[in-house]
UniProtKB/TrEMBL annotation:
InterPro entries: IsoCit/isopropylmalate_DH_CS, IsoPropMal-DH-like_dom, Isopropylmalate_DH. This is 3-isopropylmalate dehydrogenase. The gene is leuB. It is an enzyme of class 1 (oxidoreductase). Keywords: Amino-acid biosynthesis, Branched-chain amino acid biosynthesis, Cytoplasm, Leucine biosynthesis, Magnesium, Manganese, Metal-binding, NAD, Oxidoreductase.
Amino acid sequence: MGVYKIAVLKGDGIGPEIVEASLLVLKRVGEIFGHDFVLEEGLIGGKAIDEKCTPLPQETLDLCLKADAVLLGAVGGPKWDNLPTDKRPEKGLLGIRKALDLYANLRPAKVYTALIDASPLKKEIAQGTDFIVVRELTGDLYYGEPRGIFRNGERYAINTMHYTESQIRRVVRKAFEIARVRRKKLTSVDKSNVLEVSALWREIVEEEKQNFPDVDVEHLYVDNCAMQIIKRPSTFDVIVTGNMFGDILSDEAAVISGSLGMLPSASLGDKHALYEPVHGSAPDIAGKGIANPIATILSVAMMLKYSFGLEKESSVIEQAVERVLQMGYRTPDISSEGTTVVGTTEMAQLISKEVEKLCEG
Ligand code: NAD
Ligand code: IPM
Ligand code: MN
C-alpha cells in the first residue's frame, strides 16, 4: 500500500483518449493492490498554447517537479504546424525533458506472439524480437546551439550536433547496466565515419566497456543499423544511441511489433521520470475512439516498475495485455482477419478485466 503522486499531461490529438484509457487500468490496479494513485492534471503542447499562450506553462513544470512521476499522452497537430519551431507544441515536450533532466529514454520493442501476423516483416524474421533502444534525450541536434533560420539575403539555417563527455557517459553507463541484467549485448549506434560527435561517442563506449567486461559490445553505423534492425531484429538486445538517431530507429523498431501504437517508453533522469507512448498525437485518427491505448498502458506498467518499484503490479498489466491480444481483441491498427476489432476504451476495459482475473487466480 502506497501513495504515489502522478502528474498527468494528456496533451493533443489522441493524447486525452489514450491517457484516459490507461488511467482505467491504473485505477483498477490501485483498487486491487490498495495503492493510492493521486492524479493531478497539467496543460502541455497545443492545448497549453491555446489556453496559456505557451506550450509549457510554469505551473505544469512545477507540478511535474513535485510529482513522483509524470504520465504524458502526446503533443502537436496541424492546428499549430505553422508556428515557428520555438513556439510549437513539441517545444513543450522538449522543455520538460530538459527541465527534468530525463537523459535516458528507454523504448522497448517486442514482438508479441499473438501479433506476429500484424508485423510487416516475415514471421520467421520478426519472431523472438525483444530489444530495447536507450535513446539519449537531453542533447544532440535537438538542443545544440547555435541554431536558427536566417532570412536576410539567401536564406540559410543551422542546427548544431553537440554532446559533452558527461552527457554521453551517463547514458552509455545506463545502457550497459540495462544490458547486464538482460542478454548482455550492447549495440552502440553512431556515424563516426563522418561526425566528430560520433567519434567521441564511440571513444566513450570503448572506455566504459572496461567497466562492464561481461557485456558484449558491437558498434554499428546508423545507416547500417537501420537496415540490420529489419534484417535481423531478434539478434538485438540493447541499442544505445544519441537523441536524433534514437528517435528515428525507435519508430522503425516499433513497427516490427505491428504498430507504433504498441511501443511504450520511460524517460529517466536521476531525480525525475516521465512515461509516454513513443507515437505522436495521430491527428488522422484523433476523436474517433479507435487509437490503440496499449503503448500508453504499457508506459503505465513501466512507471509502476521504474518509479514505484511495483514489479508485480507492472507485470500483471503486461500479462493482461498479452492475454487480451491472445483472445483476439484488436484496435484497427493491429487488426487482421479473424480478430475482433474494438475501440480505445473497450481495449482498456478488456485489459482491466484481465488484470482483475489474473489477481483473483
Ligand atoms: P504519429 O506518431 O502521431 O502518427 C504516425 C502514424 O501512426 C499515423 O498514421 C497514426 O494514425 C498512427 N498512430 C500513432 N499512434 C497510434 C495509436 N496509438 N493507435 C493507432 N495508430 C497510431 O506521428 P506524426 O503523424 O508524424 O505526427 C503527428 C503529430 O504528433 C506531430 O505534430 C508530431 O510532432 C507529434 N508527435 C508527438 C510526439 C510526442 O508527443 N511524444 C511523438 C511523435 C510525434
Ligand atoms: C518522440 C517525438 C518527439 C521527438 C517530438 C515530438 C519532439 O518524435 O518523442 O519520439 O522527436 O523526440
Ligand atoms: Mn519520435
